[in-house]
Amino acid sequence: MTTGGRRYRYVGPIELTATVRPGRGGCPIGSAAEFGAWIAKRSAAELAEPFTFVVGVDGVLRLAPRRSEHVACAGGDVVLSAGEISFVREPERWAVSEVSNHSTGYCPDVTSWPDVARALDVVGLGRPSGFTYEVVFRRCLVCQEHNIVREDDFVCVFCGSELPESWNVDSTP
């Protein structure tokens, strides 16, 4: 079953695709029970830092250790969103304490939040109303480099050209 809006294919360094192992992507989390089993295996040190996540085109959340590449977490597949996520234990359940779209391999737009929200809701995790940290990605039309826009300064850090206002990292529909 496919879901969601825009799909993001991997646009990062080609050499990182070597981290993809067929059938060994991030752990799919499609229910509260699956999340409970997964989180129970995490150490205190792991819980102290964010995890890598992707939401596949099937709408399923996949989680991996922070230093995992998003493309490996996704099994090399196209995704609906990607970023970093942290969890906190609340009295009644686990919840998301921080979540971002920070993935320089997929460069998802901030508009990918609804797909993340749906995946978290299916699992029954408490969540914020949006990304707690939004990363704005743009591709320079002059030098073709991918940029992270900081403080609404839409200028390419590589060549100084103006960057588009709208997301344009992957020109493939």
Give me the secondary-structure topology:
Blueprint: E1 27-29, H1 32-40, H2 44-47, E2 51-56, E3 61-64, H3 70-73, E4 79-89, E5 94-100, H4 113-123, E6 136-139, E7 146-149
Antiparallel strand pairs: 1-3, 2-3, 2-4, 4-5, 6-7
How would you explain this protein's 3D organization?
The protein is an alpha+beta fold and 173 residues long. The chain has two domains: 14-134, no CATH class; 136-173. Helices cover 16% and strands 23% of the residues. It has four helices and seven strands, in the order βααββαββαββ. It has helices spanning 32-40, 44-47, 70-73, 113-123; strands spanning 27-29, 51-56, 61-64, 79-89, 94-100, 136-139, 146-149. A five-stranded antiparallel sheet has the order 1-3-2-4-5. The chain has a two-stranded antiparallel ribbon with strand order 6-7. β2 and β3 form a beta hairpin.
> What spatial form do the alpha-carbon principal axes imply?
globular
Round the mean pLDDT to the nearest integer and report it.
94
How many domains make up the coordinates? 2
Which strand order spans the largest sheet, edge to edge or round the barrel? 1-3-2-4-5
Q: Please describe the biggest sheet, giving its number of strands, its sense, and whether it closes into a barrel.
A: 5 strands, antiparallel
Q: Report the uncertain regions.
A: none
In N-to-C order, the SSE pattern is EHHEEHEEHEE
- Quaternary state of the chains: single chain
Percent helix range: 10-25%
* Helix-and-strand structural type: alpha+beta
Total strands: the figure is: 7
Q: What is the number of helical segments per DSSP (H or I, 4+ residues)? A: 4
Distance between the termini: 20 Å
Estimated radius of gyration: 16 Å
> How much of the residues is beta strand, in percent?
15-25%
